[in-house]
Amino acid sequence: MYIKASERTGKASSEPRGGRQIVFLDLIRFTAALLVLAFHVGFRSFPKTPEGWHTVIGRYARLGWVGVPIFFVLSGFVIAYSAGKASPSEFVKSRLLRLYPAVWICSTITLVLQIFTTGYYHGLLHAWLDALTLAPVGPIIDGSYWTLRVEMSFYLLIFLLLVFDRFRYIGPTMVTVSALSTAFLALGYAVDHALLKAGGFIPSIPDFLINSRWARLLLIDYAPHFAIGVLLWLMFFHGVTIFRSCALAFCFLGAVLSVRVEWQEVVQSSKEPSSLMLCILIWAAAVLAIVLSVRYNKAIVEWLGPERTKQARTLGLITYPLYLLHQSIGEHFVQRLNGRIPDIAIMLLAAAASMALAYGVVRYAEKPIQERLRRLLHPVRPPVSVSTLP
Question: What are phi and psi of 169, to 5 degrees?
Fold first, then answer.
């Protein structure tokens, strides 16, 4: 993952240890995508049986949703790192180049695949058009796309800080947003606990608000994850302070509550039990891996060598289209092969097909569109000729 050091806030290191690429962040991103793939393909895509959701692979695949909050922590770190040196227009252009070409390609593939698989197209065209623009509301063409709306909300917050020249306050801003999120999460937890203790079955008002579309757009569900990423960036490249250390601990608590809310939603919707503690440990291990990746980047780069470092970068690049494509591809494989071959074989085939197609998007389809979009966003103006004649 290539990132640019900030020059806006305090004294920042000009380069991470080992150069501009923090290699292991790419591998963490790829692993998070595989976790989500396992959840959707190995757990959610299969029909539920009387014995439960696939006791063989579902026991492990049901934990894969934890990949989503891991993505949000990574996003907080990387976006803060890259935005610090950018102007508002540069930040917007970089996000357009990164997000839109892949989503145009992948949403079109998903549209064709869903029509081919189901023979149903009513409503899909509307969802496809919304995907092309990354509209914050409206139908989504694939279940994975909801996280892009959360990401766009975070990007909007960063953009506003840049526009008003307040990026130096990114730390306090994210802590404030995280505090509001944590208050909602804690209130929802307290009310749910009280209802459960009283034997009630009415969902709590805070929980309803937390799980609403607008709550997600306002980062109420996930602000602590983004805040942790931002605070880690600040602590690594602008120094450890008492405020940042205390804020990190506070946001960590909020993130744990966020994981708990998502865990409860998955358990209630699937009617399948899973370990909350294991979900928290997986997420915490990923955060620790991010810290170690930055801290020991130079040693990791030297250990991997140029060739494997390049391969790690490729895995990081295919993560985005892999995330966008895997669910529709997985559902197609399950629908065609369920009951004919073992479930684990279906999941492996779906994973291989998703990765191959994602690589094709990055290698052949995305770059030409990015180049055309880059020329549109950065037009080359001819030099102005100045006449010396009177």
Answer: -100, 20
